[in-house]
Write the structure tokens for this entry.
Amino acid sequence: MLNKPNETIEQEIVTKSADTDSAASHALANNPEAQFDKTLEETRRAEDLKLADTTRESLIGMKPSTLVELDKNYLKDVMRRDPKLNMHSVEDPTYRYFTVLGVSGEKLGIIGVYNTDDDKNAINIIIDPKYRGLGLAAQFYDLLIDTLNLPFVTLTIDYDPHRPDDPSFTNIRSMRAAEKLPGVERVYEKRFEEIQKAKFIYKGNKKKA
């Protein structure tokens, strides 16, 4: 039996590797949930790198400090800068909305809390576009829990695993932020015709200073 030249063997290895990669890509393309998981993991890595580059001083400077009455002009300004936002039921008296101020008085965003037939202390949140990526969502929740003396808040996130590359449908950042909350409990997940809905219960960061 003749031995194959090294160059032939190397070429066969490259070809088999390419075939394997192609098969994996094809399988991924035909599995929307796998696509979603892959995109979620890539987003996690990218955001970890981004947060690693953020200085401790800037994080301290952006720390949420106070809840004040909702500034509707500020809400309009934030929504103008990010047309994708949708803050519903602002005029509903059963919904309590607040502007979130930082330690230096800067407006960091808006948070609201309300009850429905299915959920208690449901949360609606907007982080000002210029302060996103700093991990402020969890601090917003903690501030609301402490200020209103709430036992917990309910986070409901809608996402579409069939559109893993469209942040309008996947809510990857929201999902990742919810999963990382200390002590958070995932209490519900259900697939509907077009979206998947996940619900979390968060009781606040008991370990914070």
Summary: The chain has one domain: 31-202. The mean pLDDT is 75. The longest strand covers residues 107-114.
